[in-house]
Write a structure and sequence with these properties.
By secondary structure, the protein is of the alpha+beta class. Helices cover 33% and strands 25% of the residues. A hairpin with a 4-residue loop joins strand 21 and strand 22. The protein is globular and about 75 Å long. The relative contact order is 0.18. InterPro entries: FAD/NAD-bd_sf, MQO.
């Protein structure tokens, strides 16, 4: 597309983030032209693929790493409240799209699955009880149950208890309001809506370069499949939502805001079973406590996954290392990402995370028997013949400059914007997809501040709580959760 007729919005990467941003902007500016560039033959095949992510619908109902145990014995629930509220924002937007018939039946992408936390050992039980006491009266966590009674826990998740020593001190919490989300299906559904309403999807088309021209437009260099010549298009606004590939493209864009960022890739493996009899015994997402030195994304969990209407179980993750930034990426991704501006932050982050490095080494050296022993801590009667190993997607954790330490390793997501809001990119991982809508709302506010006032009524139509904190309005919490549960058929 020539500079005389540029694209209004170019979305690089066909994952849940690009699909979410494109869908929001389509509601706000129906006349804008949108084009999606995906290097693979289909959208939603990297981090958004259901077997490449945990798909919990992260809402801190069961993820213990979002509630910090403070030295004085109290529990800091601020991160849990924030993440839960962000997920409720995503649910409101999906509900709006379902009511407008912009998305198909909600069971295509979201299923009701209880969320549980499960621990053993006196110290862990004491922590879980304090966590429960800190959360149970908060409106976003209303209905949370706690028990140390093996019979009660058996009624919640029989596979946790069968074969477990009666003398072991255990505890669990449960939230029936939990969900399982197939972000691959949701990505495809959102993309189908966009293409049905004028957006153009270009698959097998890899973006190889970004350059801002003097007139403010972005020149995007593209490489198609073998046998086709490279091409260029021009865009007024560019979003780099290419998962692990985002860092390299932001570096190529030349924006100063991207300098100093680095990435630390972590791969993962899971054990999976599709045995119908075993799957039928366990309908829950059960999270435990991470090992000492383990990154938050390595918290062990035994999950019900519902993909294409069929339930399976997945346990893990077992952390590993690959220098690739994408599952389909290059072995040179990590070394080629090192620049003069980020080498000091990367070295500083490595120095301060030697425990993480040792954890990864021990995980890489762990044999099949050791890995299966971890599953048996959750499911004592597990049999190796029922399970097989799958490789999950790559997660590239953010490394950024820090005035005191030189560089820090950040477990989370980071929006990078530049060139007066004409380009933005997303770095990082968890909680990622579950909070795609609030992340994109933040991006919109940063990149289009001059349009935000005019767009606010539309945003409030899509997301009734927009501009408010649900946690500050108990009555609004109950109304919002009930409304979205009804539309998304989660009752």
């Amino acid at each position: 597309m020539s500079p005389a007729n540029p694209i209004d919005v170019a979305l690089i990467g066909g994952g849940i983030m690009s699909a979410t941003l494109g869908t929001i902007l389509k509601q706000l500016e129906p006349g804008w032209s949108i084009r999606i560039f995906e290097a693979l033959p289909e959208v939603g095949q990297e981090s958004s693929n259901p077997w490449n992510n945990a798909g919990t619908g992260h809402s801190a109902l069961c993820e213990l790493n979002y509630t910090k145990d403070l030295p004085d014995g109290t529990i800091d629930i601020s991160s849990a409240v924030k993440i839960n509220e962000q997920f409720q924002v995503s649910r409101q937007f999906w509900s709006y799209l379902v009511k407008k018939d912009f998305l198909p039946a909600p069971e295509d992408f979201i299923s009701p699955v209880p969320h549980m936390s499960f621990v053993w050992g006196d110290d862990n039980v004491a922590f879980l009880k304090r966590r429960f006491d800190a959360l149970k009266d908060h409106p976003l966590f209303a209905g949370m149950e706690y028990s140390e009674d093996p019979a009660v826990i058996y009624s919640w998740a029989p596979t946790l208890m069968a074969g477990r020593p009666k003398s072991q001190h255990i505890a669990a919490t449960r939230m029936e309001a939990g969900t399982d989300v197939d972000f691959g299906a949701l990505t495809r559904d959102l993309t189908s809506y966009l293409t049905a309403n004028g957006a153009v999807l270009s698959t097998d088309e890899k973006v190889t370069g970004l350059h801002r021209m003097r007139d403010g437009l972005w020149r995007i260099r593209l490489r198609r499949a073998i046998g086709k010549s490279p091409s260029t298009v021009h865009a007024r606004f560019v979003f780099v939502g290419a998962g692990g590939g985002a860092l390299k493209l932001l570096q190529k864009s030349g924006i100063p805001e991207a300098r100093g960022y680095g990435g630390f890739p972590v791969s993962g493996q899971f054990l999976r079973t599709d045995n119908p009899a075993l799957v039928a015994k366990h309908r829950a997402k059960v999270y435990g406590k991470a090992s000492v030195g383990a990154p938050p994304m390595s918290v062990p969990h035994l999950d019900t996954r519902v993909v294409d209407g069929t339930a399976s179980l997945m346990f893990g993750p077992y952390a590993g290392f690959s220098p690739k930034f994408l599952k389909t990426g290059s072995w040179l991704d990590l070394p080629l990402s090192i620049r003069p501006g980020n080498i000091i932050p990367m070295l500083a982050a490595f120095k301060d995370n030697l425990d993480l490095s040792w954890y990864l080494i021990t995980q890489l050296l762990a044999g099949k028997r050791t890995k299966f022993a971890a599953l048996r801590e959750f499911m004592p009667d597990a049999r190796p013949s029922d399970w097989y190993q799958i490789t999950a997607g790559q997660r590239v954790q953010v490394i950024k400059k820090d005035a005191k330490k030189g560089g820090i390793l950040q477990f989370g997501t980071e929006v990078v914007t530049g060139a007066a809001g004409s380009i933005a990119g997303l770095l990082g991982a968890s909680p990622g997809a579950s909070t795609a809508v609030p992340i994109m709302l933040d991006l919109i506010g940063r990149c289009f501040p001059d349009r935000l006032e005019a767009w606010t009524p539309g945003l409030r139509t899509m997301i009734p709580s927009y501009g408010k904190n649900l946690s500050d309005a108990p009555a609004l919490v109950g109304k919002t959760l009930a409304a979205t549960a009804k539309v998304l058929e989660l009752n």
